[in-house]
Amino acid sequence: MKFGFIGFGEVSYTLSKLLLALDFEILSSIEGRSQKTIDLINSLDLTLLDSFKDVAKESDVLISANSPDIALDIAKNYGNLTNGFFLDFNNISPKTVFEIEDILSDDKFIDSAIIGRVNSDELNIYLSGSKAQFLLDKIKKEIGSKGIDINKMDFKINVKLISDKIGDVSKLKMLRSSYTKGVSALLVESFELAEKLDLEEELWEILSLTENRDFERSSKSRIDSSKKASKRRYEELVEVLYFLDNVDNVDESKIMARATKDKFEYLKNRENKE
């Protein structure tokens, strides 16, 4: 079984490492990629093809892990070229998910997500769609045929099948994204203000007393990633709000989500000026 990747960032890199360890062939391309991405691709033993169209045509499972704003174009341009399954791991709204389903049909498309830290030794993957269980069984069967005991690997993969309905995983992603990005925005704002007041260390100390021992380390990591990826976070929140507007059209029910989007828009614009 061959897995192909359109786009090659942190998600694709992590999934590729795990799949290579399970003796699957990984396809990708350096077509139009930055030097940073090329270096990341070359750090793994991948099969590189001339173009992403070739990757799509040769893959049994084609994976899209890009930014939300190009997810639909990726599905249009490459999803129809594969004879296998198309998995979308982007943080996109259910509306976009259903548009992809209309393009590809639920016989080919599987709604997908990684929940939690991507670069950890324990990966949590969520799937939904009419063919999700079929694909999962097929992968497990091939791993078994290779004589690989997945329980003895240096990593752990938890795969949860949510339902046979396209869109259910995406809905969970949107709700989780609204929560986690709201927390991140509040952390950034609170500690930037504390820094101006020269009370940053004291704020870490008192919050660690009421939260948990690992609070400072995990929060600093969250603040750092939020600033570095403010553009991506903003794009994801646009998708989140589109989803929430369809769930409840009362503006007051989404005050926090809208404020979070505005905060990341500010961080994005500030980053562009620096």
Outline the structure in words:
- It contains eleven helices and eight strands.
- By secondary structure, it is an alpha/beta fold.
- The chain has an eight-stranded mixed sheet with strand order 3-2-1-4-5-6-7-8, sandwiched between helices.
- A hairpin with a 7-residue loop joins strand 6 (109-114) and strand 7.
- The termini are far apart.
Kindly list the characteristics that best describe this protein:
alpha/beta, Pgluconate_DH_NAD-bd_C, eight-stranded mixed sheet, 274 residues, 11 helices, N-(1-d-carboxylethyl)-l-norvaline Dehydrogenase, domain 2
Mean pLDDT: 92
Strand content: 15-25%
- Quick one: biggest sheet? 8 strands, mixed
The CATH first-level class of the largest domain comes to Alpha Beta
- Indicate the structural class: alpha/beta
Please give the radius of gyration in angstroms: 20 Å
Organism: Methanobrevibacter ruminantium (strain ATCC 35063 / DSM 1093 / JCM 13430 / OCM 146 / M1) (Methanobacterium ruminantium)
Domain Phosphogluconate dehydrogenase NAD-binding putative C-terminal: 194-265
InterPro entries: 6-PGluconate_DH-like_C_sf, 6PGD_dom2, NAD(P)-bd_dom_sf, Pgluconate_DH_NAD-bd_C
Protein name: Phosphogluconate dehydrogenase NAD-binding putative C-terminal domain-containing protein
